[in-house]
Each structure stands twice: as C-alpha cells, then as structure tokens.
Amino acid sequence: MPGTYSSTPRTTPTRYRERARYDRTTVHRILDESLICHLGYLNAGSPVVLPTTHARRGDVLYLHGSSGSGPMLAAAKTPEGLPVCVTVTLVDGLVFARSAMHHSLAYRSVVVLGAARLVTDRDEKLDALAALTDHAVSGRAADSRPPNDRELAMTAVLALELVEVSAKVRTGGPVDDPEDLTLPHWAGVVPLAMTAGSPEPAGDLDPDIPLPAYLKPYRRPR
C-alpha cells in the first residue's frame, strides 16, 4: 500500500528527527516482522504496558487478549474507543563506540497512537483471529482448527486504526567524537537476527503427519 502517514506533534520525535519514517512500506514491514507488541493504556489513572500479539490487515492493527484482561474490560466500557499506545521494536545489532556515551543499537521501531475499539462483530473477530494466527506463519490458520464458541467468548480482540503512526530507524556504525577516533578501543557493529531452530514435533503427534511446507524453513518476513 503506497503513501505516507501524516506526522503529528505526538509522532514527531524530540530527538533524532532524521530517523523518523512515515511511509507505509516501512511501518508495515516492521509491524509484520515483529512477533510481539506492547500495549499501553491507563488503568484507573495508572499507566500499564502489556506485551501481546498483533496482526495487521491493511490499515488496521488487531491486538489479541483474554476477554477478562484489563485492556479488554476497559475497552468494553469505552464505546468511543480506549486511548492506547502500541509499540513494536526490532533490534538489528549492537553498536559499539569508543566511548561509553555513544554506544547504541541498530533498531527499527513503530509507535501507534489512537483509540482502540473492541471487536464485537463475529465475522470480523474470526477474520482477526485468523490473521493473528497467520502472523506467526502464513498458512497456519487454514492448517488448524478454528475457534469454537467457548474459545471465542474467552478471547477478545482490539482493533486500532493506523492513523497516528510513525516509525524510527537507526542504521549504520558508531558515531564517535573526533577526539576519540584514535583511542585503542574496538568500535563497530555486532549484527543480530532471529534464527529458528529445527521444528520439534509434539510427543503425541501422529508420525505420518508431515512437517508443513510453510515451516521449511521458518523465517520472519522482512
């Protein structure tokens, strides 16, 4: 999906503004690659940040949770939408500088602000849960039993429109002060990446069931 998101005062960084990105391609790739997001909201006036899973469908971000969890209960009481902040971060490397001050990370992150609504339409909820399953690996939703009525009642989904959103990206090596360049300390980047091991079948799995093609091998989208 081409285009860019409009920057707002809340999505404009106060530092390193040159690292901000608002194009949909960058934002969507980061959201789609990350397996975990952090959902922030106010609970009785106190800030709470919870890790959860997410999935993107176009310009809507779906967030998974228990129907009895704090944010889901709060959203049920807020028909106009629960004010939230959702963040995602991917760490691509450790940046070692000659000075402790200039050590850093190579990273890609996204911040989404807005009012999240509780998904109550059954068809949208089923579609969102399928997207959440496929977010782990594409094709898994069709290769597993869909939720039954009891499981649907136990599970809740929040929908957050991607409107007030920004990404921030830090790449490249260390940025040392000129006077530190001759210091006898190693400087550079240690790249980091998530790697998957060999799939381990469940102990009670029928040995005649083959490993699905979508797990040969397992990789996150980039």
Q: Termini, distance in Å?
A: 16 Å
Overall 3D shape:
globular
Which runs of at least 5 residues are low in confidence (pLDDT < 50)?
none
- Oligomeric state of the chains? single chain
Q: N-to-C SSE series?
A: EHEEEEHEEHHEEE
Total count of domains: 1
Query: Which band does the percent of strand residues land in?
Result: 25-35%
The Cα radius of gyration reads 21 Å
Query: Could you name the CATH topology?
Result: Pnp Oxidase, Chain A
Structural class: alpha+beta
Q: What's the story with the biggest beta sheet?
A: 10 strands, antiparallel
Tell me the helix content.
10-25%
CATH superfamily: Electron Transport, Fmn-binding Protein, Chain A
Mean pLDDT: 95
Under the CATH scheme, the architecture is Roll
Look at the structure and give the CATH class: Mainly Beta
Give the strand tally: 10
How does this model look, in words?
The chain is α+β, with helices and mostly antiparallel strands and 222 residues long. It has one domain (17-172): Roll (Pnp Oxidase, Chain A). Helix content is 17%, strand content 34%. The chain is built from 4 helices and 10 strands. Strands 1, 2, 3, 4, 5, 6, 7, 8, 9 and 10 form a 10-stranded antiparallel sheet that branches. The mean pLDDT is 95.
